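Chain A, query sequence.
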Amino acid sequence: MRRRAALTALAAAVIAGVAACAPSTPGSSTGSAGGSGGGATADRITIGTTADVVNFNPLVGNSRTDSWVTNLMYPHLTQMDETGKRIPYLATEWAYSEDGKTATVKLRDDMKWSDGKPVTADDVVFSIETVKKEKFGVIAGLITALEKAEAVSPTEVEFSLSRPDGTFVHNIGFWLPIVPKHVFEKAPSVQKFANDKDWVSAGPYKLTKVERGQRYVMERVENFGPAPGGKPTVKEVVFRVFPDVNTEVLALRNGEIDVIANVLPPTTAVSLKNDPKIKMMEIPSLGWAHLQYNTKRKPLDDVRVRQALAHAVDYESIRKIALQGFAKTSNSSVLTPAQPDYVDPAMKEYAFDVNKSKELLKQAGVTNLSLNMIYDQADPNIAKWAPMVRDSAKQAGIEIKLQGLERNTYIDKGAKRDFDIYAGSWAIMDNPPANMGLAFKTGGFINYAQVSDPKLDDLIDEGQRALSPAEAKAPIQEAAKIIHEQVYDNVLYVETFNIAHSTKWTNFKPMPSELLSIVNPLSLAQAKPAS
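Chain A, predicted structure.
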């Protein structure tokens, strides 16, 4: 008897690229590649982004534009529906053994790399074993239970695990891009392989032209099994690069582009609500915005000081003013309303109470508290609420020195745990047992607060051993209570994303993550010209 994590047929519409706009001249780096001058057709869809691709190697690329482009080139085992549930893509079904120490995944047999070679279990094994061997990226932190991956047949992979891990297939299915073994194995180090030319891919589109700072042109694959009728409907996808969101919005209004891939800042979204040429889509995020306190720095190692800081934040004002109402409380819990299988209705948000904050600091024997807070100065939301955190803390007698940083510097300081307070957001936290292991377990890959709590570690381990959300719920809820009580993470809100596209298009399927937006393969498969 085997436990079924999922067993469904791949929906015919999952991967098709369906959409386009009026033709233009894609060869010009300055001319329009958008939909001005007519209705949408099946020739081209033009998508706006505010950044170039940083890395064409999908195993190491982690920016939004990296993901949007490479997701259309390299398959994952699974996709995600609008609720965050896993659905088949390269994988058709998956299962765990009764003891949870073996996971088996079956694959489609009709997908090919662009050089004609079939996509097989060997490619899956190579992709995951390479990450395991070279230990890079978030994926490495999600596969610590993996002992061995083996191709049982060209269409079946068996994963041997050192311990029961009910998060394993869920994690690799969504996060692990599958790359062609026969191409990537030639690199001395896959982690350092640029993959910046002569791409061999297996998605619904192949990358044909790169004009950095301008555009990325992708042409459909004529024989792509998962697409309705065997090939994507849209002939060409063009990602155009703009210097900022305001320029993107102007291009959308002028009909130069059809979609803005990135999530819009709340103030921008409000300004577009009544534009008859633009359709706004809203969807709750699977991530959250938060403050983390460095528990290895005094006096932040004292829970009373962290609690004092938590009570010195005006959460409702942040949601109302900085987010323009496009945010909901998580009740100060890492189990957000977007996770109905795990959310705990008994959790309560920290009260904004400066007197309580002062009393806690007094109990801790702390006076004249002064801390630095780092944040990404390019993040429009955090740039708005960071001063609000500073100002409300001042009412409690706490000085917070803001350090708005260039993104790479910000990422580096976070990775080195070089801060007192870390202001940021997780783009997607869709699997609580796995996410807690990354963010709060001793030595976790994104454990920025440097939490080290044996009781919490044990509860997370128990949640990860469970083979279903029902089994994992109790230990994970208990773990969330510890995180709340100890203020290992101060969750401010769950954002409601705003995504814009031309009214010439309809039937997009937004995913609850800024990394997926409405330009994921599932969404492009179902988008079509408005009648």
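The domain at 3-196+503-529 is CATH 3.90.76.10 (Dipeptide-binding Protein; domain 1). The first strand starts at residue 3 and ends at 7.
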